[in-house]
Amino acid sequence: MLFTPSNKKVLALVDCNSFYCSCERLFAPHLEKKPVVVLSNNDGCVVSRTDEAKALGIPMGIPYFKIRDFVKKHQVAVFSSNYALYGDISARIMKVLSQFTPEIEVYSIDEAFLDLTGFSNLQEYGLKIREMVKKLIGIPVSIGMAPTKVLAKVANRIAKKKNGHGGIFDLNDPQTQDSVLETIDVQDIWGIGYKSAEKLNRIKIKTAKDLRDANEHTIQKLLTVVGRRIVRELRGELCLPLELLRKDRKQIVCGRGFGKPVFELEEIKEALANYVTLAAERLRKQKSVCGTVQVILHTNPFKNTTQYFNQASITLLTGTSSTNTLIRAASMGLERIYQQGFEYKKVGVILINLCPANRNQMDLLSYRSISSSDSCMEAIDKINARMGRNALKFGACGTNDDWKMLAKLKSRCYTTKWNEILAV
DNA sequence: TCTGGGGTCCTAGGACCC
DNA sequence: TCTGGGGTCCTAGGACCC
Q1: What is the pLDDT of residues A111-121, one digit of tens each?
Q2: Which domains does chain A have, with CATH numbers?
Q3: Which of A43, A49, A319, A420 could form a disulfide with A39 if both were Cys (CB 3.0 to 4.6 A apart)?
Q4: pTM of the entire predicted model
């Protein structure tokens, strides 16, 4: 066969089948071929189902209390979720996958994109990957191959759904793409959610093929650049490259619903302190400090009672990863928004304004917008020395020009009153 | 009685600056 | 002090994903 030079990428999306359920099956082999579901936190709703459970008609996300009797009747095995276990198994799988290519993006707990550009006999290679993961870890995976991420997602869907593909589907061939995209509902494309699908349907775009062949500008007007990228990816043009390095989180969220309604501030505070502790651990793990702590407090939207949703943001003078400091800030925020008389359902904390811990305070607060210069720093240091620590919260500007510096200092991002600075 | 939790990216609009 | 245009930054909110 002739070798055809091509700059086309070959990406493979490896996706674990019913991941959480498959993990539970590892320790309960007798559940092979039996219906299994895994529930969310507090056993709230179904978050993972095996094919057998799907066949029984159990939908994703259904509240558990609605199917409790049904589940008993059909002898469905039910598990509470065990995220520590799933995380551990996931890490092992990724390790196995990275032996097949160094170019791997771990996309989620149960998915990874692999760059297989240049490999020959993809079908066989895919089978090998599949066998290896099954043999070493015990988890079944499906593999979709295509020139772009969006197409690889489509391919994976087919590998997973249709029997007779051996869990692998190659969508690199343009003719195959043509016939396959026709059968894919626009709503089932990666990145097209419920709202966007509605908009597309309104202008008679129903299938993935319709979307691929649509006018880019029309789509951009409708769905912003996000939609336009999807169109291009469907055409085989790579717009979403592999992200090989794991980036630091830009925000860290930690919160959970209470099992029962809660009324008292102290009780909420205690829960919040726990979440802050967890969030702070994650923060330190990625070696970042946090500049702003946001607290959220909700009543139960499913309940027919007076609703209350609120949030408070606390800006810290100095970036920190200290659990105690963060808890103090969060408690302050909570006190600000807590009101008596509501049945609270959920509290949580969001750490935002994160930056690497090896930057100092000045850098933290100017991290995103303003670049620094020494003379400016010196001036600010002097002002702070005269007026007390942290009189000037933000620092730095891009030039030595005194006038420009003063203009910067006058702007609203500096907390000290201008007259006081003049007095120095 | 009981309805998950943790993320990202994009845009519009306001505030502020020169 | 007034004027307007253009640029940048910040935030809230929307949409989406697993």
Answers
A1: 999 999 999 99
A2: 1-87+107-172 (3.30.70.270), 173-246 (1.10.150.20), 252-397 (3.30.1490.100)
A3: A43
A4: 0.84
